[in-house]
Design a protein that fits this description.
alpha+beta; 6-stranded mixed beta sheet; 3-stranded antiparallel beta sheet; 5 helices
Length: about 180
């Protein structure tokens, strides 16, 4: 694809957005067998859902990797299975809150990938970041005991991570943590 288009870059980098969702699938015997049945409509039609994940070159509107699976496979699993297939150290990965976990940050750091993640406000790390007055700072993320346990399950070695935190105040007054 890139040999036939004038590839757009941001400051020399390809921006890869990563997000996942669920997809309503058409009813068929084969789909129900593979993806399962997750709901039944009022008219008695069984509905199947799939988990989908896309890695999209945001400036060139091109999907570079994707995955579809039964709903019991997580977005994070899709991410781990696909990230190694993208071997361009000039990429910056832009990830939504579904990827805002210590082990995702550790994996990306171990792979020397550049990234920006929008964090959910539920983790202790984000709560500590929100409590600070600064809106842009560098801090050390010391993994919690739960994060250490989850990281070891993935075969990774937990360690403190030096991260940059940027807080963005939205028009609604809500604070986003990146």
């Amino acid at each position: 694809h890139y040999t036939h288009v004038n590839k757009k870059l941001w400051k020399g980098h390809r921006l890869i957005g990563v997000d996942g969702s669920t997809l309503n699938l058409p009813p068929s015997k084969e789909i129900k067998e593979h993806f399962g049945v997750h709901a039944t409509t009022d008219s008695g039609v069984n509905r199947s859902l799939a988990r989908i994940t896309f890695f999209q070159d945001l400036l060139n509107d091109f999907v570079v990797e994707n995955d579809i699976s039964p709903l019991n496979v997580s977005e994070k699993t899709h991410f781990i299975n696909r990230i190694e297939k993208i071997d361009d150290q000039n990429d910056i990965f832009i990830l939504d809150r579904g990827y805002s976990h210590y082990n995702t940050v550790l994996l990306l750091d171990n792979m020397s990938k550049s990234f920006c993640i929008r964090f959910s406000g539920y983790s202790n790390f984000v709560k500590e970041a929100l409590a600070k007055e600064e809106r842009d700072f560098v801090t050390t993320w010391h993994p919690s005991s739960k994060e250490i346990k989850n990281t070891k399950k993935q075969g990774l070695t937990p360690r403190p991570l030096l991260v940059r935190v940027t807080k963005v105040i939205l028009k609604t007054g809500e604070t986003e943590v990146l």
